[in-house]
Amino acid sequence: MTSIAPETPDTPQVVPWYHWLWVFPLAMFLRLWLATLRVRCSVPKIDDREGPSIIALWHDRLFLASLVGNRFFGRPITALISASRDGGWLVAFFDLMGIHAVRGSSSRRGTEALIALTKAVRQGHHAGVTPDGPKGPRRICKSGIVSLAKMTGRPILILGIRFHRALYLKSWDQFGLPIPFSKVDITFVQLPLVARTENDEAVAREIEQKLNELS
Fold this sequence. Notes:
Layout: H1 20-36, E1 38-41, E2 54-56, H2 65-72, E3 77-81, H3 85-96, E4 100-103, H4 110-122, E5 126-129, H5 144-152, E6 156-163, E7 166-168, E8 176-178, E9 183-190, H6 200-214
Parallel strand pairs: 1-9, 2-5, 2-6, 3-4, 3-5
Antiparallel strand pairs: 6-9, 7-8
């Protein structure tokens, strides 16, 4: 598999158009896979009529992102995805699954990504963030999500996903793949609005603790 070489070190890598011929059937296969899962959640749908939220989930639970976005939210979701080659494939997949993307991470295009996500939230989109991505450390929350909450004035919504039966890849995040027809528990917890005076690291540790409790 190849990708277009970036023009500069900070330019996000993208998937060439002809490779979408492979991404499309993969996305359709995964839609069928997701449809077999027995999802249990305490709420039938998130009431997001009053405004968007910043959705936080661990990187190892991204497999469920499109299912959760399409089933539980009324507003569109813009996700923060790595500017790397792997991120390019994820963008192509998410696009077919109905999720928009902003490219960047804490180590690459961080400022640009934060500005783009802030703009998306102000336009009414939820922001989807994996605070330990794109390269870890696993399940350690970075403070970028706190900065986003302060800039937008929107609440952080914790998305807890617990697999009952799953396979786990030997990747940095131990990416989880729920076994078809298995149970998945989904929990939403909204945190209080983050005040500008609050310590970013303290809030990040709170997010980290809550995500680990629920996932």
